[in-house]
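Fig. S4 source data, part A: sequence.
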Amino acid sequence: MPKVFIYVIDRDFGFAPNPFHGSCTLATCKPGIRKSAAPGDWVVGMGGSRLKATGRCIYAMRVGRKLSFNDYWNSTEFRSKRPVRNGSKKMMVGDNIYFQDPARHRWHQVDSHHSNADGSPNPHNIERDTRVDAVLISNHFYYFGSEAPVVPNWILRGLGYENGRSYRVFDLDAHGYKLVRWLEGKFSKCLNRVLADPFDFDDSVARYSVKTNRISVPPRSSSRR
C-alpha cells in the first residue's frame, strides 16, 4: 500500500528538496525518508516555525524513481542538478553532489550547500547524507515555496499532525488520501511547477553544517537570480 511521508522543513533554499530543472528531488538530508520511501509513495514537506510557515505545505512529490548516488551523478538527465557555486541561484543550490569511488569506496562531495565555507568537503554532512545511498525523484510534484498554502485544519486534525522533528508515515488509502486529494484537486494547474521562490532563496550562497546545525552566509557582493 502506498505511503504518505510528512515532515517539517526548517530550511528552504531549493536544495532539499530541489524542485528545479524539470523534476523534484530529495538527494540529501532525511535519510530515514530516503531509505523507506518507494515509487508510488508521497513525500510532503510542511513549513516550520523558523520559516513562520507552520501548517503550510511547501511541497509534495509522488516518488517516481529511486536512484543510487552514483546513478544520479552519472545520469545526463540530472547533470543540470550539479551545483555551480558561482552561477545563478538555481545553479548554486544543485543537489547532485555525491559520487563514490568504486575502487576505494570513498565518498566525494562537490562544492555545494553542504560543503565547508571554503568549498572543501564537510565530513559531518557526508556521513549523514550518505548513510542512505538513495535519491528520490519525482516528475509529479507541487512546489509552492514561499507561497506555501495553509492546509485546512480538518485535514491536519484527521492526521493528528503536529509540527516536530523527524517525520510521520500514513497509509495513503487509510489516512493520507485526504491530504493528497486536496492537493491534487485544488492545485491541479500547479503540477510540476515552481510556484514561488524558496523561502531562503536570497541566501543561496549559504552553507549548512549538521555538526553545528547552523547556516553560514558570506557577505553579499552581488544579487543573483
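Fig. S4 source data, part B ends here. DSSP finds six helices and twelve strands in the chain.
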